[in-house]
Amino acid sequence: MNDRSGKPSHPPVKDWTTDFDHRDPSWIENPFPIWDELRGRCPVARSERFQDGAYFPSRYAEVREIAYDSEHFSSRRVIVRENKVPLTPSPPITSDPPEHTPARKLLLPAFAPQAIARLEPRARALCRELLDAIGDAKTCDAAVDYAQHIPVRLIAHMLGVPEQDGDLFRRWIHLVLEVGISDESVIMPTLQEMAAYFAAEIKKRGAHRGDDLISFLLDAKMEGQPLSGPHLQGTLRLLLIAGIDTTWSGIGASLWHLATHAEDRRRLVANPALMPTAIEEFLRAYAPVTMAREVVKETTVGGCPFKPGGQVLLSFPAANRDPAKFAQAEQVLIDRAENPHAAFGLGRHRCIGSNLARLEMTVAIEEWLARFPEFRLAEGEKVTWSEGTVRGPRRLPVALN
Amino acid sequence: MSSTKILRVRVERALCQGHNRCCSIAPELFEADELGNSRVIGDGRVPVALEAKAKLAVANCPEHAVRLTHE
């Protein structure tokens, strides 16, 4: 039974090795003990709750192997769903080789470090505006009043669409990435709504291009040809969806950590030079993004058979918590020097927005701590976490000062 | 380590996916190209003062694309 409030009900999980469900309340609240247990008992868990069966590798080694293996594991489905929906390509995230390479290369320059660095003044200014709006309040919701607005406004700026449409974008993302995992009926109408929105933006540009990503893609050539209508729409959908709740989650989880770990917070305030390692450690320990693959050819990974059609929950967050790869993996060490984490994926699908995400997280945390060096969870209020393939706090009530 | 050896960093271009960890950790040794992938600056020779940073760049690359060689 599902409703559209994003709170579908599923039978409780009794055995995580044969019946895992990433929508289970215990996983949503605190998945880490579940992953730790699975790594020891059953490195590739199974579930029949998802069409054609699903696999969940919890160790770094298998996650890495699958991420590198596009021969057996296709990216054409990047979200594990209860029922598969018709393929809706969003190049390059849903592309496999050889189509993947040109579709990705086209976008890379716009997200390269030197291009993203130019956005820093804008990012800093919008963080300060949000902090000004919080003003001298005694409490606020750090997820709702602060974190959620930062990536929306920056990607809107890059795409050249109104920042005020943020509520609309977040609604689409909630429907596609959360509700749509269990209730596929919401997906197609949402994608149609997005397509109509982008069609209107494309029309606005007519013969007059702006200095924005939609204009850039309208004029872009891939292997000598302009992008097809579906390719353009798919890529725009990706750029809008991929950069919002992911970074919102990264900023929110970092603030949650600092609200609940006073020593780390004071240390970071006293020594801002720790910021780069702290951000990488928050990315490792609270990596927001879990991807998916579809098995397209029978194979064995980690001693476990994978059957064609099966869906793979490809958890970079679980890989990042594997003690076989990271010393003291269960601890958050804001000065961790060696941290080759997989928060942005591994292999050819490395998150194209990683430089943007890092910029947003760094600026957001710096500006927050400059304004509110002392803060903690608000007493008697509940933190809630998102459901599905992107994990982060959706309500984060904090007491300021 | 003998002081006569030359330490050099290298980026395996076929493995680099543009995580940019090396560029952040050791901007004296690595830079991003126009696609955001990493390359070494100059001949990749590592001055003694940057040896620790070079080793960290190797240790932090998620793709094992950054290499350190002794000549």
Provide the fold topology.
The complex is a heterodimer of chains A (401) and B (71).
Chain A: H1 25-29, H2 32-41, E1 44-47, E2 54-57, H3 60-68, E3 73-74, H4 100-111, H5 113-117, H6 120-134, E4 139-141, H7 142-147, H8 149-159, H9 166-182, H10 187-205, H11 213-219, E5 221-222, E6 225-226, H12 229-242, H13 245-260, H14 262-270, H15 275-285, E7 290-295, E8 299-301, E9 304-306, E10 311-315, H16 316-319, H17 354-371, E11 375-377, E12 384-385, E13 393-395, E14 397-400
Parallel strand pairs in A: 2-10
Antiparallel strand pairs in A: 1-2, 3-7, 4-14, 5-6, 7-10, 8-9, 11-14, 12-13
Chain B: E1 7-11, H1 21-25, E2 30-32, E3 38-40, H2 51-60, E4 66-70
Antiparallel strand pairs in B: 1-4, 2-3
Question: Features of this protein?
Answer:
heterodimer, A: 401 residues, alpha+beta, Cytochrome p450, 5-stranded mixed sheet, 3-stranded antiparallel sheet, 14 strands, disordered N terminus, B: 71 residues, Alpha-Beta Plaits, two-stranded antiparallel sheet, two-stranded antiparallel ribbon, 4 strands, 23% strand
State the total count of DSSP E strands of chain B. Answer: 4
Q: Portion of residues in helices of chain A?
A: 40-55%
Total strands of chain A: the figure is: 14
Strand content of chain B: 15-25%
Percent strand of chain A: 5-15%
Mean pLDDT of chain A: 95
CATH C-level class of chain A is Mainly Alpha
Judged by helices, strands and strand pairing, the structural class of chain B is: alpha+beta
Terminus-to-terminus distance of chain B: 11 Å
Radius of gyration of chain B: 11 Å
What pattern of helices and strands is seen along the backbone of chain B? EHEEHE
Number of helices of chain A: 17
- What is the name of the CATH architecture of chain B? 2-Layer Sandwich
Question: What does the main sheet of chain A amount to?
Answer: 5 strands, mixed
Named at the architecture level, the CATH assignment of chain A is: Orthogonal Bundle
